[in-house]
Every structure is written in C-alpha cells, then in structure tokens.
Amino acid sequence: MTAVEQNLPAKDSAPKTIYLKDYRVPDYLIKTTDLRFDIYDRNEKDEKSEGRDGETIVSAMLQFYRNPAATDAVTQLTLHGADLELVSIALNGKVLGEGDYQFGEESITIFNTPEEFTLITITKIKPEQNTSLEGLYRSRTMYCTQCEAEGFRKITYYLDRPDVMSEFTTTVVADKKYPVLLSNGNLIDQGELDGNRHYATWHDPFKKPAYLFALVAGDLAHIEDKFTTRSGRDVALKIFVEPKDLDKCDHAMESLKNSMRWDEEVYGREYDLNIFMIVAVDDFNMGAMENKGLNIFNTSCVLAKPETTTDAGFQRVEGVVAHEYFHNWSGNRVTCRDWFQLSLKEGFTVYRDSEFSADMGSRTVKRVEDVTLLRTAQFAEDAGPMAHPIRPESYIEISNFYTMTIYEKGAEIIRMLATLLGKENFRKGTDLYFDRHDGQAVTTEDFVKALEDASGRDLTQFKRWYSQAGTPRLHITDSYDEDAQEYSLTIKQTCPPTPECENKLPFHIPVAVGLIGSAGDLPLVLQNAEPDFETSDNTYKVLELTETEQTFVFGRVQEKPVPSLLRGFSAPVKWDYDYTRDDLILLMSRDSDGFNRWEASQQLGLQAIEQAMEAYQQGNSLSNWQVDAELVEAYRSVLQNESLDKAMVAYMLSLPSEAYLSELADIVDVEAIHYGRVAVRRALANALRNEFETLYRAYNHQQAYAATADGIAARSLKNVALGYLTLLNDETLIKRCEQQYRTANNMTDVMAALTQLVNSDAPLAQQYAASALEDFYQRWQGESLVVNQWLSVQAMCVLPRTLEKVKALQSHAAFDGKNPNKIRALIAAFCNNNPINFHADDGAGYQFLADQIIHLNTQNPQIASRLLTPLTKWKKYGPQRQALMKKQLERILAEPDLSKDVFEVVSKSLV
Ligand code: B3K
Ligand code: ZN
Fold first, then answer.
1. What's the pLDDT tens digit per position in 41-71?
2. What is the rounded CA–CA span in Å between residue 300 and residue 316?
3. Where are the domains of the chain?
4. pLDDT per residue over 837-895, tens digit each?
5. Of 56, 363, 404, 894, which has the highest C-beta tally within 10 A?
6. Is any atom of ligand 1 closer than 6 Å to the C-beta of 402?
7. Is the CB of residue 399 below 6 angstroms from any atom belonging to ligand 1?
8. 289 lines ligand 1 (CB under 6 A)
C-alpha cells in the first residue's frame, strides 16, 4: 500500500491549549513494543528493499489491550503521529484499508478496535531532513533520537504519552559504515545481513514511556569502565563519541561512577541494567537526555579536558552526567503521569544533582551558584508573561515548559520539603515514594503524599507552592527588649499576581535564621515552640511561616543581635530587612552561615552600585567615581581573610551582575546599571590595587591543572583579581593579562585573560585582543566546543559595534546556523548576556533577534522559541524600548506558519 497522503487534513488554525483538568486515563495500553529501523543514508541504494536514499523504514509491532482503569466503552483508538509517511497498517494480521482508519492532524484513528489486538505499522521518515532535532535525526556522522517530550510521534504511530509504559525490543539495521548500533536496555542479538548491512537487537526489560526511547547509529569510538553495585552486580559503563573526541571522556566517566555511588549512599538507589551508555552528539537542543540505559548528551555536557574546557565546563559535565543518571530513578523507574507533572522528575532531579555537586565540591559555593541562577533567570521568569506554577494548569506547547521554574524553582520546592522534614524523614519519604510507585507514572500529589505518610507531617498548605506562581516577598522587621532580653522577628508575606492567579493564599515558608552578636552566633531559645529536630545546633532554627503575618519571639537574648535571615537561602523568595551598613559588615565577617556572609557582601555591593547609578541618572560623570572608605575596608578584610574558603572570597569580591540588578529594578535603566557597576568596580580596583596584585601573584602559579574544588577556587580568585586590575588601563597590567593569555596551561585562565582583553577599551588591550582572537581561532578551529567559546567572548563584548561583529561572524566558517550550540554561543550570548549592546537605543538588537527567530521558526521551533526570552521582558523597560521590543514581537506574530512553540510565547508576551 502506498502513502495515504490524500486523506491528510489541512493544518487547522489556532493552536489548541491543553488543560490539566482535562486529563483522562488512556483507553488502551501497550504491553510490548517491537521496533525495527532500516536506516538508509542519503547515498545508499538497495533495490531489493523498500528503502530509498535518506529514508528510514520503521516497522512497529504493538500489543494493545484495553486499559482496565478506562471507563468509556470505546471501540476506536487514536494514535499520535507527525511527519510520518504510512506505508502499511495491519490489525491482527488483517491489512487495513480506507474506511478502517482516518488521519487527523498529527494523529491516526483506527476504527473497530477489539479488547486486545496486535497492530503492525510500517512508516517512512527522513532523518536527514529533520532539522527540528526532535524524533530521529542526523547529527554530523551519526543518527540519533530525541523523544522527550513528544518526539516519538515523529518516529512511528504510537500512544505518545508518559502514562503509557511498554516493554521495548528494538532492532536497528544499517550499513556497516555505521558500526555502532545502540538502543535501550541490553543487547540480545546482532549479526550480518546482505548488502554490507548489519543489525543489533536490544531489549529493555523495564516498562517505559516512549519519551525514554533512544536509538543511535554511527561510527563511534568509546571508552569503557565498570561499576560494581553495592549488591555486587557488575555494570558495564560506556561513553561513545566521535573518534576525535576520545581523549575528552575521562571526566564524564569519573562523574558517572561518583554519581552511581552517591545515589546508593544518599538515596539507597542502585542501577538496574547490565550496561549504562552515554553518547555525545553535536547537534542537540538542550543539555542531555536520560533515555533508559542510553543517555544522549550534547557534546558540551560530556567532553572535557583542561586544554579545551573551562572550570565551569568541567562542573557542568559533572552536574549533567549526575542529573541524567539520577533520572534513572527520579523519572524513569517512577515517571510522570502527564506533562503537567514535569517538575515531579525535573525539580527533584535538579535538587538531587545539586546536592551531589555540593558533596563533590564546596557546598556553599554550589549554593551561591544555584541561588544566583534562580534569582536572575527564574525570578525574572516568575515576574514576566510566561510565569507559571511548577505544576502548570495549561500549555500550548509542552516544549516551552522546560523552564527555570519547572527545573530550578522545582528544585527549591524539594529543598524546602527536605528542610521542613529534616534529613531522616525526608529519606524515609523518598524511600516510600520510590518503593510505592516503582514502575508507575505518577503525579506531584503522589510525591508529597509519600513524604506526608513517611513523616507524619501535614503538607496541605505547603502544596500551594505547586499551584501558585510568582516569587513571594517577605518583609521582615524586628524589635529588642533589653530589659526582658527578648528579641522578636515579625515576618509578613505577600505574592504579586501572576497570569494564572490574582490573589495568592499564604505559602508555608521555612525561614532558617540565626542571631549574630558582637562575638558571633548567639544561642537561640524560641518561645512557645517545640524543641527543634536539629538539636545539635542551637544557633540555627527553621521558623515556619504559614500566616500572612507572624511574629517569632526569642528569649534570653543578651545583646541586640543582627539577624541572619533565610540562611542558606532557605526559600525561593525575595526578602527585605533594613540592614545598616555596619550590620552588613558584621554579617560579612561573623555570620557562621557562609551563604549569608556572601549575601551580605552582595547587599553592600548593591548599595554602592545604587549610589553610582543615581549619580549617573542625575547626569554626573562617573569617570572618577569613588566609594566610601568603609566599603573599601570591608572588601579589604575579605581579601585578606585567610580563614575564608577561597572560592567564596572570589564570589564575595564579585559585585551583583547586571542581570541581577535588572531583575531587582522595576524599570531597567540599562546604561545606569552598566556604567554604575563598572564605576564601582573601577573604584574598588583603584583603592585595592596593591591587595589585588598580591592576590594575583599568590595564586598565579603554574601548577598542573586539576578540576578540584581547591584548583577551581585558586583560579577563580586569581581571575577576579585580574578582572579588577585590567580595569585600571595600566600598561603593565594589560601586558600581564596578555601574558596570561599566552602562557596559561588551561582554558579557564586563557578565557579569563581573553575576556579581559576583548572588553578593555585601552588601545593596547584592543591591539592584544585582535591578535589573541586571531591566534585563538587558528589554534582551535578544529575543536567545535572551543570555537563556541571564541564566538561567545566576542558576542558578549561590551564595547560599541559588537552587533556588527556578531552579524559578520554569522558568515564566518566558525558558525553554523543549524547547530544549537553555535546559535547559543553567538546569538543567545549576545541577546541575553550583553545588555548594553542588545538594548541599543535604535532597536537594532531587537530587530536582529526577531530576524533570527523568524528564520529559525520553521527550521527548529524549540530553539526559536527559547531565543525569545529577552524580548518577552519588554514591560521591564522604558517607553521607547518597550515600543521597539513590542514592534518586533508583533512582527513575529504576523509571520505565516508560526510554530506552536513560537506562537505560544509571543502571544502570551503580548497580552
Ligand atoms: N529530560 C531532558 C529534557 C528534555 C527536553 C525536551 N524538550 C533533560 C533533562 O532534564 O534531564
Ligand atoms: Zn532532567
């Protein structure tokens, strides 16, 4: 039978909204799924087979049975399917013809379906033409898949929803020039076929939803290791890459073994198959994917070696390898009932990977990094038109909901649960969750219920975090009664309206506190309270805020303390308390909570920048801007404090970012933020020049590179000093920077120096920058990931004319407009991380971005939609910028054939 294209309906008009309240259990389930892929690449011909150049024939045998939980007595079945060419379809051996089924938009409905039946379909797809990078596609030399969330329907007709879990057997057939043929589970058969072809058959004994399916065919090299689980089973570990990248896999392998051990120790979770594989591909829409037993990774999240990868890159590899591995339990063994539950697996798994990274490196540093990301990107999302609760009520395109909110805020919600329950009860709760729901597709309610059942706690009010969006605000005041030696804290909570809800009910918020006296932490005696479960530390308490306003009274407080609030950032909220500068200086040096010492340093920096911004806004010159002597002293004491963790010193010396300052503003004054911040940095550099020089020299040792916490700390401290010193436009210092570029033995130091040279307006620096950029490209042009760093450093240059350079780079051999990593490195870096240029007065940055989005809309809707983020924030800017940004959004909306992805974000942004 030939393709039944004539039956295809016209694409209907407005994209549909999907609602959580409409969830229905599936009418049918699929017991087993047998797949066969016959892959023919663009140049192959085999007259005997049905395959043609560039086609893959997918044969699927599916055993359907009526879902016992379904109540409707239906006798038809609708399967998802998109961009497929149907070759044949047979039900219980009978070939179906016209009238037996009907095509819908992205679906096929089969009539007269019995209680149980076998469906065999044969479909054709064209991986080489698949530029969306969803479904089966080609990346450079290999074929690979990406199915989450709804990519499996681009492979074959199926019930492509996570609550349909099936046992998969997959045969991959290809020419022998693709020697490596992989799928999920264990290899059960392989062999040779006619015509220089071969096959491999994989069986995955664990039922899984289609989004966890994976297939890879390519000419790949691999490194191999082994892990023995605590119950004594040997697991083969393999990382597959293009042969040229084989020297960059060791760090990922170490990270994988550490993750496997950690999940056994911390969560009691063992790996369950005989083999665990990772494949690195260059064209990938996001970081990585947790397909059962066969994780597929963006090369940027797996490859690392000191010469090519920065410290941040090493840490990202460790974090992402762990994240995907942890999904084996939080996501795969226990999966989501529907996509509204996405944070069930993502928030929990981000929490798990961040705790893992904290255990592998420095806990406080990891917390500072996570909170920085949350407070800039997630808070901004929560305050914008795409704000949604961590369990959304509706969506148009689920790909748009892989957000900072689902991931990062979702992780904060889990962290709060862990804080409220305490370590032991939280572990009991997760044990119960995994045991109770193993092999099931469940909801966030099920997760919370397991924690409630295991701990005996009532989390009814806490669950509002799942349904209410927006960042709560806490207004905190205090009073001290010297005679009674009583200290009280009054906390008020509010939450701004968000698209889904105007008036919020009060949240249940854990507020971790300490009180700091002149000599450090004071013991806490909370009045009218049960003794705390964290009894070992009497200087730390978790206050539970549940009302709109609540007062907590501490007794036996012998001096007026300075409160250390939201210790460790115990809740994803914005809070204010009226600290004096002296209070902040005390916290910065005395607080036993490392996170809050950093927080105090940021508050101080913020006050200083705000003063400079005000001067700028009043038309004053910032060229000789000075900061107060007390501030300089505070920074000096941080610089010279031997007892502090070096990585923390580096963070304490770094002023709040432009992104954070923008998030804090009601209306963003792009220039005042940029020039105000630079002025304070330059003033500090001037005042502390000697100290920074001493610091630089102390840490500029050419030791062998190691991506350890100590090594990373030393490099970041040195490079913070370098950054301040280069601002002084002093020839000796600029030469030193150039020397670092030339002599460094690792990419962290190379990039730090290059970044300073590129961003300095001193003529000598510009001269060095030009030749360094040239030298860098000549040296690294064969390493795509390194070239991406080269693109980014240029895209993020704060000097004028950067947009022209970015446009010129689009036609450079280094760029590839189809590769998401290149798009992120050049275009997203410019639009997201270069505010002073992106927000140029004439709107050229906005127009440039809209052009890119319009171009990418059909080619790769997910990437196009993701690029929209900076334009969605238009209401945060002054009237002129607002108008220019809005105009571009309207221009995009007027485009014909807008993808669901882009349509959803643009239309919601314009409301
Ligand atoms: N679960 C995947 C994300 C898939 C995104 C699909 N658009 C990676 C992760 O979070 O582990
Ligand atoms: Zn994930």
1. 987 555 555 557 899 999 999 999 999 999 8
2. 9
3. 18-219, 334-467, 473-578
4. 999 999 999 999 999 999 999 999 999 999 999 999 999 999 999 999 999 999 999 99
5. 56
6. yes
7. yes
8. yes
